[in-house]
Amino acid sequence: MSRYTITVTGTVTGHGRSDREAIIGYDPPLRTYFLQAFPHEETDEPALWLGTHDQAFEMLDDLHHAAMALGYDFMPLPSDVATKLANDKAATRDRP
Known about the structure:
By secondary structure, the protein is an alpha+beta fold. Helix content is 24%, strand content 34%.
């Protein structure tokens, strides 16, 4: 599973905020991109956690649209992270 640190912004509470330690990656067993951001202070569970089931987000655009629908954004991705994510998915293409 790949994991890269990015910044996610959100306006869910009506106030702008950002998480500079958010995680985006690709999960080969689930065949999905995932995003985790805004950990809870006590439980450490992320307030935003997308990509938790099989083939939830097969394309980064799908993940981005889902985040935006919830009031979050992570675009534009740094070009090196976008390339690594595409390569991570491509490397698992022939896996069962």
